Amino acid sequence: MHFLDTPIEYLKGVGPIRAELLKKEINIFTFSDLLHYYPFRYTDRSVIHKVTELNADMPYIQLKGKIIRFEEKGQKRAKRLIAHFQDETGITELIWFKGIRWIKKGIKTNIEYLVFGNPSAYQNKINIVHPEMDVFEKQQSISSSLQAVYSTTEHLSSKGLNSRGIRKLVKALLLQIENKIKETLSDSLLSKLKLPKREVALINIHFPVDISQLERAQKRLKFEELFFLQFHLLKMKLTRTQKYKGFVFEKVSNHFDNYFKNHLSFELTNAQKKVLKEIRLDVKRGVQLNRLLQGDVGSGKTLVALMSMLMAVDNNFQTCMMAPTEILAQQHFKNISKELKEMDIKISILTGSSKAKERKELHQQLENGEIDILIGTHALLEDKVVFKNLAFVVIDEQHRFGVAQRAKLWKKNTTPPHILVMTATPIPRTLSMTLYGDLDVSVIDELPPGRKEIKTLWRSDSSRLKVNKFIHEQIALGRQIYIVYPLIQESEKLDYKDLMDGYKAIAAEFPMPKFQVSVVHGQMKSEDKEYEMERFAEGITNIMVATTVIEVGVDVPNASVMVIESAERFGLSQLHQLRGRVGRGAEQSYCILLSGHKISNEGRLRLETIASTNDGFKIAEVDLKLRGPGDMMGTKQSGMLNFKIADLLKDGKILEFARKEAIALLKEDENLEKAENINIARAYRPYAKQRMGWSRIS
């Protein structure tokens, strides 16, 4: 057993009780876990203040002196321990409300201590509540002016394992690690990037000699973490392309050319042309395509997907498109059928509500190769759905499907089909390199010509009369309106009430028969939802009152106004997605954000961001800052982005460096067989076993 694999209970100062707490509270099981339990911040302990300098406005400070006496005041819960602390200039009070017995036992009078804490004022006296205390030692073997601060819990603190207690354990461990830390990077990489050795970095991350050494240690450990992640993702991608030779689309002929020349009603954007070229190159050379297509709402991703599917049809292959909801699948089916109505291409749809007789007939046609393009929902994944020669798969709003679900599409053939996954949720570059590092990424970053930018206005509830007047004006011009209410799972009853109260108010303001109002929410039967959606899509109803079920829904070019009620309750990406439901036609469109007067600073920033820009990628950057990568992508619980030290928001440059070096290494020594890469090979072996590729379709 390697030294670092030693169970944590065998470290001096731990023992069985503390060990159990460390395991339960912060997942520290071994010496290695403790060594890699990095501080979350540092305090400067180089300055020692005098008691007479203290005031309540000061941040954390450090004193040196002795406790001259203790006293206890109050009873039961109000009980507190007061220590009178003295230096050469005066006396101040140190106060504890918890752990009094332990403090009295562990801290002595007339011994010189270093005291660290935050001064506060009470009854015209300056005191320090629950300070950190260390016996002052003139010489320490591991010392630093920058003191590490560790995350801890109430349970750990009750057993003396507050930040200071953890720091003591780390110090005890560091005194034993000399020549026991295996290097994970090659000498050439360390030299090229001027990085310290791993042992040096680990000492300096916990007990930095100065700020310069701390920064070098952080850079080294962040690079290592991101380097192995990128190496792994890129290696999976390389392995996949070597193992799976994709279907070769030798020709682009009849159908593609016919559609492009005779049926495409507008000019493709340069971004669309670029992405089509990327896809064409992949499928032509027989590489198994595994590509993420990012594009803002309304950027024309579906058209790119359709033209890519025509490449498959031109080569006598079948293709399918999978959407997350029945409504969206129906929309894709109608739009694609309309686009290809004059062309000799068989298009079908399969959803959960498809009748048994229809299904049976469709299954037969599919297996016989009579269907060229199949559009559907999760129903496409059923074992009964057998293709004759499926060669190209499009997955819309891919984040709504699990890896296991998507994997089923791979197994429809002995040769895996090409996969194009689409998302209208813009992803910041650092996040896409991490989450989708083993996919090729294409971006459509411009809107079709003639599209007018949606005007976004943020108004308080007091402006409701003006908003209603504006809705009246827009309806008079022949436009349609969305009014959306928040839906929060924890409060479905309340949300339903909010929606129905809102609906009653809207119905009173816009009465029948002059106005028609639809209502759609999650508690309705799917057929009722679809009926109301259809009425709105056909222009029968003027106003659609809905919850976020319309976030991914039908395109209604005539809908020009989106009113979002209680907008402060929505996330940034959700607001952006909702806004994208309007602006599908040639007319000027509007998004009106209605909020209460009392909103949090974060809520205010979200609304200010949405109101100030239509750029989904800028919005995604702000979202990343506010929520963090795990929350933003719904990956927090899965451990996908469970970095110990790297931060995707702050470490974009290090990530790009890491990716560049990973690419270079794969070119030079794909299987890490060279002697100079022995350290990397050893470090990568367990890593490769543990970390799965979450973004791959396989």
The CATH superfamily label of one domain reads P-loop containing nucleotide triphosphate hydrolases
**Largest sheet entry:** 7 strands, mixed
Q: pLDDT below 50 for ≥5 consecutive residues: which ranges?
A: 691-698
What is the CATH class of one domain? Alpha Beta
Broad structural category: alpha/beta
* Secondary structure tally, helices: 23
| CATH topology label of one domain | Rossmann fold
Question: What percent of residues adopt helix (DSSP H or I)?
Answer: 40-55%
- Please report the total strand number as a whole number: 22
- The residue-averaged pLDDT reads 85
State which percent range the strand residues make up. 15-25%
Radius of gyration: 31 Å
Architecture (CATH level 2) name of one domain: 3-Layer(aba) Sandwich
Across the major sheet, the strand order is 6-7-4-3-2-5-8
Which term fits the overall shape? Answer: globular
Seen as an oligomer or otherwise, the chain set is single chain
Measured distance between first and last alpha carbons? 35 Å
In short, what is this structure?
The protein is an alpha/beta fold and 698 residues long. The protein has 23 helices and 22 strands. The strands form 4 sheets. It has a 7-stranded mixed sheet. A 7-stranded parallel sheet has the order 12-13-11-14-15-10-16, with helices on both faces.
Describe this structure in words.
The protein has 698 residues and is of the alpha/beta class. Among the domains are: 46-143, OB fold (Dihydrolipoamide Acetyltransferase, E2P), CATH 2.40.50; 254-285 and 299-423, 3-Layer(aba) Sandwich (Rossmann fold); 455-613, P-loop containing nucleotide triphosphate hydrolases (Rossmann fold, 3-Layer(aba) Sandwich), CATH 3.40.50.300. It is 40% helix and 17% strand. The chain contains 23 helices and 22 strands. The strands form four sheets. Strands 6-7-4-3-2-5-8 form a seven-stranded mixed β-sheet. Helix 9 (254-263) packs antiparallel against helix 11, helix 10 (270-284) packs parallel to helix 11 and helix 20 packs antiparallel against helix 21 (616-633). The chain is globular. Mean pLDDT is 85; it is low at 691-698.
